[in-house]
Amino acid sequence: MKVAVIIPARLGSTRFPRKVLARETGKYLIEHVFERVAGAPGIDRVILATDSEEVLVAGRSFGAETVLTRGDHPSGTDRVAEVARRLTHDVIINVQGDEPLIEHGDLAVLRGFFERGDRPPADLATLATRRTDPEGFRDPNIVKVVIGAGGNALYFSREPVPHHQDHARGGDPLEWHQHIGVYAYQRDVLLALSALPQTALERRERLEQLRALENGWRMDVGFTAHRHLGIDTEEEYRRFVAEHARAGKRGWSGSAPALV
Q1: 105: closest CA among 177, 36, 54?
Q2: Which of 9, 90, 144, 197 is the most interior residue, by most CB within 10 Å?
Q3: Does residue 259 sit within a domain?
Q4: How many domains does the chain have?
Q5: Other beta carbons within 10 Å of 38
């Protein structure tokens, strides 16, 4: 099985413009992501996909294979699909360009959904981590995933889902699943998905993964112990920079701290 990782890197982020080129650590944010993925076991190729000449130049400056894509894609999934059409790999993994703490083990979990001998390979897969804190549960910048008994995603939302009865008034303890925005697809599923228009829920929640659920694909969810977040805001980036500086003083271990 051949596996490619494609990292979409759009320059015009709404909440944190030009974030992929943020460089307060001495490296571009997108460079941190590339370095976390490069060399991962079982990954045959890593490609940065961007809509910006500036990002193209930056990516090539640190040795990444970088390609220029169309500028009108509605989501990272569609940008990844444009590049995947040129490839022959069986599985495509989409690592967002703002995930600087992705682990090799996380990629292995995703890859495993397509290597099982006891059942057909997944259509697509993603990651989640278990949490119990009410602050994160209420935070709209943290995406939640509701998972079915079979381990498949039922829904994603920025809202606190599923509904939780206040445990102080006799309800169950709060347990919820934080979504980690990394995806793996069978290549033909990815291409079929990208050929479909955006769905109503996708637009309403601003979550591209809902297009797959609304159109009937099964999305398996793997678990990771890492509670790291993608960098969506300047505040989150400053926290990453601070953690990176602290890690540098004690020796960077390569493991992902919990930026939550």
Answers
A1: 36
A2: 9
A3: no
A4: 1
A5: 13
